[in-house]
Write a structure and sequence with these properties.
Aminopeptidase; about 220 residues; alpha+beta; single chain; 5 helices
């Protein structure tokens, strides 16, 4: 998903980052008190997608640093505080919804429903060649964040991957989406990959750096 960047210099006190965030994944991991049902996502209304996948705000990011010599290449990520909040508003590139509708037909995407209303989603694609489940979108609507719905979706994805004989779940986020990285770590993911030029050639200086979080769910025999 593409996004529009808004930099704000307000001095007003902000709420916790997680309350602003929607993933690529960023809701909290508390205990849900809402009767939310997780089931297969059979179809997706673009209006629901827009309502759920809004964006995120953060006051810090992971700054990448790379050193390369003939003998050794080292890439590190250092958590740094930003001088002003970083606000990302998600927008959709042309053709993205059509692609997601095709992925949903695989039967590996999930929805979180409350009284029949979609309040969260996970659009996931099975890749047989390396036995992986790629989660393209994971989000919860604003009213249901910090209620454990995100954890329920991840747990359901984990069970689905295990039942399909897959070995790993992969999520892509950005070095600026620190709340998403924190959420993934709390639900069993590890930072397993960095791409310094995934979006553009200047990602490390003025852009966003792609971070790949992975959760191993089934060991390859």
């Amino acid at each position: 998903m593409w996004g529009q960047l808004v930099r704000t210099h307000t001095k007003k006190r902000l709420k916790s980052n997680r309350f602003f965030c929607c993933f690529r994944a960023s809701q909290g991991v508390g205990s849900s008190t809402k009767p939310v049902e997780i089931r297969a996502l059979a179809s997706l209304d673009p209006r629901d997608f827009k309502r759920i996948m809004t964006g995120y705000t953060t006051t810090c990011k992971y700054q990448p640093e790379k050193t390369e010599t003939h003998e050794q290449t080292t890439i590190t990520l250092r958590l740094t505080t930003l001088s002003s909040p970083y606000v990302k508003i998600f927008t959709q590139p042309p053709g993205e919804m059509e692609r997601y509708q095709q992925i949903i037909k695989q039967g590996t995407s999930l929805g979180a429903y409350e009284n029949g209303v979609l309040v969260g989603l996970a659009i996931a694609e099975r890749r047989n060649w390396n036995r992986s489940l790629w989660v393209w979108e994971l989000g919860i609507d604003e009213e249901h964040r910090m209620a454990g719905v995100g954890r329920k979706l991840v747990n359901a994805l984990t069970r689905l991957a295990e039942n399909l004989g897959l070995r790993i779940i992969v999520c892509e986020t950005q070095n600026t989406n620190v709340p998403a990285i924190e959420f993934y770590r709390k639900t069993g993911f590890e930072l397993d990959g960095i791409d310094l030029s995934y979006y553009a050639n200047n990602d490390t200086t003025i852009g966003e750096v792609a971070i790949f979080m992975k959760k191993r769910v089934h060991q390859m025999k």
